[in-house]
Amino acid sequence: NAGVTQTPKFQVLKTGQSMTLQCAQDMNHNSMYWYRQDPGMGLRLIYYSASEGTTDKGEVPDGYNVSRLKKQNFLLGLESAAPSQTSVYFCASKTSGTDTQYFGPGTRLTVL
Amino acid sequence: GDSVTQMEGPVTLSEEAFLTINCTYTATGYPSLFWYVQYPGEGLQLLLKATKADDKGSNKGFEATYRKETTSFHLEKGSVQVSDSAVYFCALSPNDYKLSFGAGTTVTVRA
Predict the structure, then answer these.
(1) What is the least distance, in Å, from the CA of B3 to any CA of chain A?
(2) Which chain B residues are within 8 Å of A103, Cβ to Cβ?
(3) Which of A1, A38, B22, B47 could form an SS bridge with B7, CB 3.0 to 4.6 Å?
(4) d(C-alpha A105, C-alpha A107), whole Å
(5) Least Cα separation, residue A28 to chain B (angstroms)
(6) 8-state DSSP, A51
(7) What is the pLDDT of residue B48?
(8) Rounded CA gap, A89 and A97, in Å?
């Protein structure tokens, strides 16, 4: 099992550009999550999906959109990137009814 | 709302020293508590967890006890190694969906 995978690993964007971060899991987990990690702030939840086809906002959803069309994939979109979105982004997944989340290796995004 | 406060770092130790990272929480109800570890260049991994008061989680020589009376979940290890150098995150889960993380504590162990 690959677990949770994320692509790309690194990305540099210019202000105003758009992109999609991809997350895939092969553990048949129902729930998936997107976090951002910033120095001194821990991880903050951007969006989550309790099941295929459903999504909900987390703490910091502004400037992002998500898509969960397939159970194994959870996409995070930036429509118009801003320097404030420079961060490391982590995807996670878990089985419903359990409390342990499994994390991907992260995507380091820089917005110039 | 639910929140976690953990000891600020960075923490620098010598090999075989004793490590404590303090973590306190604010929550309604009885959340599950976790310690996650992030090794350099990697994602987070679950280190240990406890789901109810007085439970002790343990893994890889690390321990933490769920203390409801002091709303704490301090992480301890009796003898650290260079390979324990990492960022440690305390977290709580108030329900089936969400995790709330502390800011993280960077630990460096020197040989």
Answers:
(1) 11
(2) 36, 43-45
(3) B22
(4) 7
(5) 16
(6) S
(7) 97
(8) 25
Dist. CA A82–CA A92, nearest whole Å: 24
Q: Which residue has the tokens 């540099």?
A: A12
Confidence class for position B17, pLDDT limits 50, 70, 90:
very high
**Given a cut of 80, is residue A21 above it in pLDDT?**
yes
Mean local confidence (pLDDT), B61-90: 96
A7 vs A19: CA distance, rounded Å = 11
Neighbours of B49 (CB within 10 A): 20
Q: Mark yes or no for CB contact B46/A105 under 8 Å.
A: no
CB of B89 less than 8 A from some CB of A = yes
Minimal Cα distance from B9: which residue of A? A40
Beta-carbon separation of B45 and A103 below 8 A: yes
- Cα separation, B56 vs B40, whole angstroms: 27
Residues of A in contact with B49 (CB under 8 A): 99-100
Cβ–Cβ gap B32/A106 under 8 Å:
no
B16 to A33, B61, B77, B84: CA distances (angstroms): 37, 12, 9, 11
